[in-house]
Amino acid sequence: MQGADTIFFIVILIMSVVIHEVAHGYAAEYFGDKTARHAGRLTLNPLKHLDIFGSVLVPLVLILAKAPFLFGWAKPVPYNPLNFTNRRWGTFWVASAGVLANFLLAIFFGMILRVIAGTGIAPDAFFIISSIVLINIGLGIFNLIPIPPLDGSKVLFSLLPSSAYAVLDFLEKYSIFILLIFIFYFARYLYPVLLFLYKLITGFAL
Length: 206
What we know:
This protein has helices spanning about 5-30, 35-40, 50-65, 85-115, 125-145, 150-160, 165-175, 175-185, 190-200. The protein is built from 9 helices and no strands. About 65% of the residues lie in helices and about 0% in strands. By secondary structure, it is mostly helical. Helix 1 (about 5-30) crosses helix 5, helix 4 runs antiparallel to helix 5 (about 125-145) and helix 5 packs across helix 9 (about 190-200). The two termini are about 15 Å apart.
């Protein structure tokens, strides 16, 4: 991948994770918690959300290593579930909002790609739109993994009885190690899912 493409991929990733986090904040506000708004995080300004390690360094290393799966993260938008009008469903929808935002972005730009593909789209435009779809599918899939601090763990445990929280406590305690093991040994198994969803949404195979 050329240097310009690498920078472009990282820019798309940063904006995608920013939208992901802002979606969390708006969902929390809908359920009665204004923590994100008071913290000035309901903005698309990437400087408010940027995590140098997760938003830049990790994606850069993955791109340079030609990893089959690209992901990253921004600083989590703060929220207080104690302020939710319904704590269980508030937690569920706040956790789900970021993933849904990424999949909706992928579907939106995938539909654009389908519409303009037959009009003789320029290769650069195809690359840009295709990259947006691909990165957002990747973020959506990755964040659904039920390992803390990923959204999938919050979605799952918001639906389980309180007796399951002991398992969540264990996962949170060792989350960094569990997540690293997953990334190094199991993340490649997500790649076929990524390819399937990309073709389903865009009509094109990678």
